[in-house]
Amino acid sequence: MQKKSIKVIQKAQEMHDWAKAQIKQRARIALVPTMGYLHEGHLSLVAIARANADLVIASIFINPTQFSPNEDFAQYPRDLKGDLQKLEVAGVDVVFTPNEGEMYPPGFATYIVPTDLANVLCGISRPHHFRGVCTIVHLLFRMTKAHVAVFGEKDYQQLTIIRRMVCDLWLDVEIIGGPTVREVDGLAKSSRNTYLSADERLDALILFKTLNQIEATFKTGERRVEKLLEQARKNISTVASARIDYIEIVSADDLVKLNIIDRKAICAMAVFIGKTRLIDNRALV
To answer: For the stretch 225-251, what's the b/e string if a residue is b when 16 or more beta carbons lie within 10 angstroms of its beta carbon?
Structure first.
């Protein structure tokens, strides 16, 4: 039997109508939202979606509302042809590729604004980021009528905020987190890794090495957050191209800063390597 080719939908109404038709046939739909330029991390989320639904939709949309004016919206890497090939091999049924006018038509004026969870970690240096994330994710949920959506744990704050949005707004979507996928040497997979020069690529390993060091010290019994962070900052300072945006240890449930690790915690960091901002995290349990 010949394999069915992947279906590409660009119009929001067409996406919505297709999803409604599948649900009438009692299909369970999974969504993997992406901004494209796909790597193994994205494809691992597709595999999780495939295992949890009858049909898988991957969206590709570089969302302008989650970028500040001084960020890399215009430069963000794009490769739609390559992305479609990867998604077809991965077994995606539909790729939703709307343009900006489809998602934010003239007169669009309603945004979802998260509060406390968005005012820490990445939210400090990117104050409008999660407003854009929540709004676009909610729109994608509505347009695709997804029963389940899969997001990467590398963006732990984003995952936490989306889970809270789904709970608070009574959205009937199951949220699944997918483990961080890494290069052989430990660097977390990211579309932005392509910005790094050869030397910066080596320097970027300091994030993974620092998380390993924090975890190792934690496992010796150290629970004082400032001691762990002091060690981490000292480690990162050994790399000349590295500049810390933040490094924090917070409660895994509500992202509240901890002084003593007395519950499940996350060490989360954002570090500039040259001009490239990278994020990573590690659970401390």
So the answer is: beebbebbeebbeebebbeebebbbbe
What's the whole-number mean pLDDT along residues 47-56? 98
Is 147 catalytic? The answer is no
269 to 40, 160, 240, 274: CA distances (angstroms) = 22, 15, 17, 16
DSSP state of 50: H
Yes or no: say if 98 and 140 are a contact pair by the CB < 8 Å rule: no
Considering the candidates 42, 129, 138, 147, report the single residue annotated as catalytic. Answer: 42
- CA 273 to chain CA centroid, nearest Å: 19
pTM over 0.85: yes
* 201, 204, 208, 214 alpha-carbon torsion, rounded to 10°: 160
Q: Which residues contact residue 128 at a Cβ distance below 8 angstroms, ignoring those fewer than 6 apart?
A: 65, 66, 68
Q: Classify residue 75 by burial, with Cβ atoms within 10 Å: 0-12, 13-18, 19+.
A: exposed
Using alpha carbons, list the distances in angstroms from residue 179 to 5, 151, 214, 240: 29, 9, 19, 30
- Token digits of residue 30: 């999974």
Closest CA to 6 of 82, 69, 70, 87: 87
Inter-residue contact 235 to 210 (CB < 8 Å): yes
108-119 pLDDT tens trace: 999 999 999 999
Strand bridging mode 29-34 / 148-152: parallel
Beta-ladder partners of 151: 177
pLDDT in tens, 232-261: 999 999 999 999 999 999 999 999 999 999
